[in-house]
Amino acid sequence: MNEYTSQAEHVAALLGATIRARRRELELTQKDLADLAGVAVRSIHEVERGKPTIRLAVLVATLSALGLTLHALKAGSHE
């Protein structure tokens, strides 16, 4: 495993944990979130599990459905 692969796995795990926490905060099931984001439930599972090879479109749709953006995550807020 090279440095970039390790870093990608770390970032994916952090994103997944953040998305899972926000989904639970909003009291949504994975199916609810998938429906809101227009993606498959399997995709939500993979995002929350921290799969480092998820499609960017799935990530953006999921974040949008939760009222989040990549910029807000980087800044450390969901507002």
Task: Supply the key terms.
single chain; 79 residues; mainly alpha; 5 helices; 71% helix
Categorize the overall geometry. globular
Mean pLDDT: 91
The CA-CA distance between the termini, in Å, is 36 Å
Largest sheet: none
Beta-strand level of the residues, as a percent range? under 5%
User: What is the count of β-strands?
Assistant: 0
Structural class: mainly alpha
Order of helices and strands: HHHHH
Unreliable runs = none
Rg calc:
12 Å
Instruction: Count every helix, treating DSSP H or I runs of 4 or more residues as helices.
Output: 5
Helix content: over 70%
What does this 3D model show about the protein?
The termini are far apart. The mean pLDDT is 91. The radius of gyration is 12 Å and the shape is globular. By secondary structure, the protein is mostly helical. It has helices at 3-25, 30-37, 41-49, 56-65, 70-75. The protein has 5 helices and no strands.
